């Protein structure tokens, strides 16, 4: 072909595929190829897979698109059906004359279908009463029922014309040089040993599960009256916190006329669908205002920051009943911290990650594997020498207590093995006698150019090495925004891809003390596209995996962690307005979440968030400030102390075709006497390059 005898098998298969796809024979393809290579200044004999792909994209597909647009589609005539003998009776001719007298053309008369007068046996009648012989599909089939000669003579049967993308890791991801780099941190001590040395497991559970964590919860099933009641309850609960400060027991109706400064409450909106600004603000009142709304004038405020859906309490006047002039805006209140300190007798290590857990160009889930490896590796392992023991019995994953020496730091020589004890019935929650390590990651977990999930693998490697007690992984795991996911050219379905990655994760950490918390994202293509999002449904139960909803508040031996996988910071950043000169935008956005007591206070929600207001009122709010608030976002990573609450944006394990970041957290124990609510002075956080 083209004077070339050694055309590769891949190129030959691709050319056959193009001929079949675009209905061209060898001669036509040769003409297209010669014309294409001449324009590219390439010799026709230089046949490569890349050039064939360029030919398809630039020439063949364009040519077919033009043909489809220009070629008129002939109207398919209605089938002409008479009787089995296809004969026109005298009565039918008379009927035609009547119809023709009313103006029906002879052409339309030819297309008119008729019910046959011939008596048809009941066994030939369809259940609808129509004669099966006359109106069955067989009556419109071609007379020849033999297969097409062109089809039977095909030589390409069994050829793969659309092979799936490689599941190997993205080259750009695997060649990264920034793995392990610290990109953001908040430390209360100088040097931190991130290798965890746990002596006992910690309790990890949902602090405020809400109804979204209920099995088989109904979502997007709300009535307008329930939605209104939920929105009104949020305003009412928020306003009640200010009654003592106001010295009053009620709020005025915002629609009424009042000339003296009075306290009002309500929800801020924009008066149109455009971008919110200082002149487009309106305030919708609660039940104290009968749901009325007025224009909001903030010209007398020196500083302000608003977004659509924000609940406020302020003081002002309404001289006309149409416009509320705000004179004072009460500062948002952060909910109280937990009353009791965490039960920590040793530092608490936490790893936090947010999906997607594979890069955008593969489904290898290598980023998830990398994160798990990080969690696994951060608990040091030593060789065990039992030569001095007279009797012993071990199994993989067994927890032991013994006495021995380690002269080199590499091998533990066990001299005495304490007998195992059956645990007593619990009286109080278990106390932590060591620091708590937590790893946190957020998806996507594979790069944008593959589905190898290599970044997930790298994260799993971290978990395997460091072995934090808790590993929080937020979605998306199978990202609906991934290019290959959107194309659908996959060897297996979406849920199978997810279940496979989770099974791999559980198998690697099966004998580890690390507790894995999976938080879904509404971007997970295999899961429910609603917020709040119900927990994942796994094919089997894993002892070390907790499926939590999004959002959720975790209780880790008294250390409270709040997390949501939705990018509330980015959504707030798009809708928020603030007074000129306002600084530290990221802190301000995070503070909105705290002072609004809600993981997603923005309303109306962003267009890509399927918000269920009834579930949000029940499962998206928090009455206790978490010690650690995780807000994964596409915005720049940060770690900040906001009102005593440690807020962290770990970003994502992957960003496009390159590796991203995850967070690791160390919590030191505090005594009951020294606990003041905030754990800011006992928590260290680092955001690390994957």
From TrEMBL:
Keyword Acyltransferase among UniProt keywords: no
Protein name stated in the entry: DNA polymerase alpha subunit B
Molecular function (Gene Ontology), one example: DNA binding
One CC-aspect GO term: alpha DNA polymerase:primase complex
InterPro entries: DNA_pol_a/d/e_bsu, DNA_pol_alpha_B_N_sf, DNA_pol_alpha_bsu, OB_DPOA2, Pol_alpha_B_N
Organism of derivation: Ornithodoros moubata
Source superkingdom: Eukaryota
Chain ranges of the DNA polymerase alpha subunit B OB domain: 248-331, 381-419
GO biological-process terms attached to the record: DNA replication initiation
Subcellular location: Nucleus
PANTHER family per UniProt: DNA POLYMERASE 2 ALPHA 70 KDA SUBUNIT, DNA POLYMERASE ALPHA SUBUNIT B
Family classification: Belongs to the DNA polymerase alpha subunit B family.
Key words, A-Z: DNA replication, Nucleus
Range of residues in the leader sequence: none
DNA polymerase alpha/delta/epsilon subunit B domain ranges (all copies): 438-640
One Pfam assignment: OB_DPOA2
Sequence ranges assigned to domain DNA polymerase alpha subunit B N-terminal in this UniProt record: 1-61
């Amino acid at each position: 072909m083209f004077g070339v005898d050694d055309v590769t098998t891949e190129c030959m298969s691709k050319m056959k595929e193009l001929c079949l796809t675009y209905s061209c024979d060898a001669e036509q393809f040769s003409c297209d190829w010669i014309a294409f290579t001449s324009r590219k200044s390439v010799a026709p004999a230089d046949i490569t897979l890349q050039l064939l792909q360029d030919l398809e994209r630039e020439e063949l597909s364009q040519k077919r698109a033009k043909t489809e647009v220009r070629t008129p589609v002939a109207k398919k005539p209605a089938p002409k059906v008479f009787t089995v003998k296809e004969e026109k009776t005298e009565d039918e001719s008379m009927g035609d004359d009547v119809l023709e007298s009313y103006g029906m053309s002879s052409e339309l008369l030819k297309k008119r279908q008729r019910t046959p007068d011939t008596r048809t046996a009941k066994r030939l009648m369809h259940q609808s009463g129509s004669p099966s012989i006359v109106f069955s599909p067989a009556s419109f089939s071609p007379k020849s029922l033999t297969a097409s000669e062109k089809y039977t003579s095909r030589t390409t049967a069994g050829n793969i014309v659309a092979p799936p993308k490689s599941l190997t890791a993205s080259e750009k991801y695997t060649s990264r040089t920034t793995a392990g780099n610290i990109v953001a941190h908040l430390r209360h001590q100088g040097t931190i040993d991130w290798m965890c040395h746990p002596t006992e497991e910690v309790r990890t559970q949902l602090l405020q599960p809400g109804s979204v964590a209920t099995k088989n919860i109904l979502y997007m099933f709300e009535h307008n009256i329930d939605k209104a009641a939920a929105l009104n309850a949020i305003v009412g609960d928020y306003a009640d916190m200010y009654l003592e400060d106001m010295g009053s027991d009620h709020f005025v109706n915002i629609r009424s006329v009042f000339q003296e400064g009075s306290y009002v409450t309500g929800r801020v909106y924009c008066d149109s669908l455009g971008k919110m600004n200082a002149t487009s603000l309106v305030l919708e009142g609660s039940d104290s205002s009968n749901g009325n709304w007025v224009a909001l004038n903030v010209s007398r405020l020196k500083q302000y920051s608003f977004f659509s859906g924000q609940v406020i309490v302020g003081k002002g006047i309404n001289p006309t009943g149409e416009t509320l002039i705000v004179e004072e805006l009460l500062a948002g209140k952060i909910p109280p911290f937990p009353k009791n300190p965490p039960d920590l007798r040793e530092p608490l290590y936490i790893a936090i990650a947010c999906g997607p857990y594979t890069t955008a160009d593969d489904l290898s889930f290598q980023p998830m594997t990398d994160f798990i490896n990080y969690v696994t590796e951060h608990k040091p392992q030593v060789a065990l020498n039992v030569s001095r023991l007279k009797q012993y019995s071990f199994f993989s994953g067994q927890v032991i207590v013994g006495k021995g020496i380690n002269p080199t730091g590499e091998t533990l020589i066990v001299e005495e093995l304490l007998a195992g004890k059956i645990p007593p019935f619990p009286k109080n929650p278990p106390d932590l006698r060591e620091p708590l390590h937590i790893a946190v990651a957020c998806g996507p977990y594979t790069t944008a150019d593959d589905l190898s999930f290599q970044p997930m693998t790298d994260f799993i490697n971290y978990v395997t090495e460091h072995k934090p007690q808790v590993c929080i992984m937020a979605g998306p795991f199978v990202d609906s925004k991934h290019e290959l996911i959107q194309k659908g050219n996959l060897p297996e379905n979406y849920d199978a891809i997810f279940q496979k990655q989770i099974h791999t994760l559980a198998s690697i950490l099966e004998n580890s003390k690390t507790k894995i918390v999976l938080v879904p994202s509404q971007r997970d293509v295999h899961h429910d596209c609603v917020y709040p999002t119900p927990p994942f449904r796994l094919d089997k139960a894993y002892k070390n995996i907790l499926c939590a909803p999004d959002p959720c508040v975790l209780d880790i031996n008294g250390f409270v962690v709040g997390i949501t996988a939705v990018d509330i910071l980015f959504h707030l950043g798009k809708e928020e307005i603030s007074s000129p000169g306002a600084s530290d935008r990221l802190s301000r956005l995070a503070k909105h979440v705290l002072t609004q007591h809600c993981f997603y206070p923005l309303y109306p929600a962003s267009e890509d968030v399927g918000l269920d207001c009834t579930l949000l009122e029940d499962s998206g709010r928090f009455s206790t400030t978490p010690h650690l608030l995780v807000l994964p976002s596409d915005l720049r990573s940060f770690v900040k102390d906001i009102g005593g609450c440690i807020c962290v944006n770990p970003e994502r394990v992957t960003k496009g075709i390159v590796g991203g970041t995850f967070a690791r957290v160390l919590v030191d124990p505090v005594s009951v006497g020294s606990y003041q609510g905030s754990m800011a002075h006992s928590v260290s956080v680092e955001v690390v390059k994957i």
